[in-house]
Task: structure prediction
Amino acid sequence: MTIEKQEAYLKNWINQDETAEAMLPLIGHLYRDRGVNINVYGQSLVNQTVIGVLNAHQFAQQVLESQLSVLDTFPILQALSRLDLSPCRVDIGKLTVRFRAQGNGTPLEDFVRQELMPVNKGKNALLKEPQDVVLYGFGRVGRLLARLLIEKTGGGDKLRLRAIVVRKGSDEDLMKRASLLERDSVHGPFNAVITLDKEENAIIANGNMVRLIYANSPDGIDYTQYGIHNAIVIDNTGKWRDRAGLGLHLQSQGVAKVILTAPGKGDIPNIVFGINHHEVNGDETIYSAASCTTNAVVPVLKAVNDRFGVVNGHLETCHSYTNDQNLIDNYHKGDRRGRAAALNMVLTSTGAAQAVAKALPELAGKLTGNAIRVPVPNVSLAVVNLTLAKETSVSELNDHLRDTALHSPLQNQIAFVNSPELVSSDFIGSRHAGVVDSLATIVTGNRCVLYVWYDNEFGYASQVVRLLQKIAGLELPVIPA
Result:
């Protein structure tokens, strides 16, 4: 019996491995030639390896608590690859589950054609011309934004990263910037082929020529001399956070709009994508993507408030240390932040509790907050302690959050896990704004405590890109809705 099991396991693995391998060219063709993004319960399969495809299915299977493998989804993928699709985002995991439940003997080809009918109308461009994007600053978030934008180039008809603006550091500046893009101690090597064009002072990444422009201020650059027009500038320096400061970008030739990767001050719209992105309009020229913590907790708070009501609560974040802190003890203008970041837990403040109200006005004045900087370089944890308007239970609350993560419009913001062995480093690279750790959920009557992990670098950068796409007019139809 043991030998029979061994052979069965190996045979099943070989079958799945071969199937996942056969899926890759179909996924690549649909993405590059049609602008179709294939995913499985929110896990993108674009630019994935065979193991990446298999792991995406495994993750979905664990959350669904039911069988879902590449053997199930491959026929769906084959069927939709034979359609004449326009740009869209297709979840072949959800289509598979829906076919099981609602197929009722319908041939799979007919079912897929019916589900994809809204986008089965031939290739078309979502934009009249590619949207130029400029990164102002090239720190932690800036480099991850570059990775994401290069990864999403596709056929080159959507977002185009055209330039990165920095202050020149040395004669080897171009090489050093490219090296930091290519290698990262936290996120690992970038899945890209990178070369340099020294004549153009440009980094060539997967065919994208990204110029390095040197400047000391946002308002003295003529982007048009580099062929850049109507660009959206993403300011990830954090140096300017009000309308007057960020408005300097708009004085440069070739700039149309600005996104700040930090909480904005004054009347600047603070957008948490998935919550208040409907506030994006054609008249506004400056937006803030709020903070990483605000993006992590607001979607979860909305999900809980919509179902159970939030009377009040406290938000405590265990936040990874940042470049603002000192490596060893030294002077710092902020309280406590002068102490060695990698050796201490540092009690500090967070504006996330107050910032929640900018995206969810119904929670204004209901939350307090604080933060502890902890000795890890990335991935943070929000502990959300709430008093609810009605009593609930662990199972009811978790079931609601699981359903929200899998089937609601917040599926790209909220992820849901149920493993007893997960720790902070397991969430490095998560593209969700926050991940609910369901096994840590505590409920007593109308009191609950939720634990929400978030990659404060990559997850946040993913939210910034979603906001960028919205501002650029890149809203892909989602199938199934």
Q: What stands out?
A: The first helix runs from residue 2 to 34. The first strand starts at residue 36 and ends at 40. The chain has a mean pLDDT of 94. DSSP finds twelve helices and 20 strands in the chain.
